[in-house]
Task: structure prediction
Amino acid sequence: MSRPSPLAAAAPLADAELIERIRAGDAAAMQRLMRRHNRVLFRTARAILRDDAEAEEAVQDAYLKAFGALASFRAESKLSTWLVRIAANEALMRRRRRASGAEVIPLNGTEDPMDEAEGPEKAAGRGELRRLIESRIDRLPEGYRAVFVLRALEELSVEDAAAALDIPEATVRTRFFRARALLRESLAREIDLSLEDAFGFAGERCDRLVANVLARMRAGT
Result:
């Protein structure tokens, strides 16, 4: 691999130009391409595997396969679509190995960093909400998660999501609609349960208030 060539940050290069530079041995172009597509590939793999570390490894393997096959890429589809399909296949293979013979439903089957100005309490609340949503996405049925992630999080079109996952567009629409409904139901149940504990006054706060009142009574205030 040759030494990296300078790439102007002010003028983002199109995928096609990055591919040509990578084919010519430009390491900087390879880095830029990965940074451009890392999020969508990780989210896709994560939706299938439900494990951060495994998803990251799957994405690494996907890039190695993609770069090895880059000479055969003919731009018949978007580069992002091609990469997502490779990452999805890598994740599916990992899931099959992990399942050790358990039934697997394939995808083509029938079926910011926190703003410091927010303050620690608000940032913590946003973090809890994010973790809640992530956990509920993880509970979506197999085949639905990847569709939801690509459509809702990455905002891919129905056509692009269908091409990336190698499933019919009608299946993307159906699974996305159902996934949103399931997610709403799950979050609504969580909110209903949380309302029972809202503005609770137990534990340390309760003990502190009782102790303070008793202390003031003893002091005659």
Observations:
- The mean pLDDT is 79.
- The chain has two domains: 1-104, 109-221.
- DSSP finds nine helices and no strands in the chain.
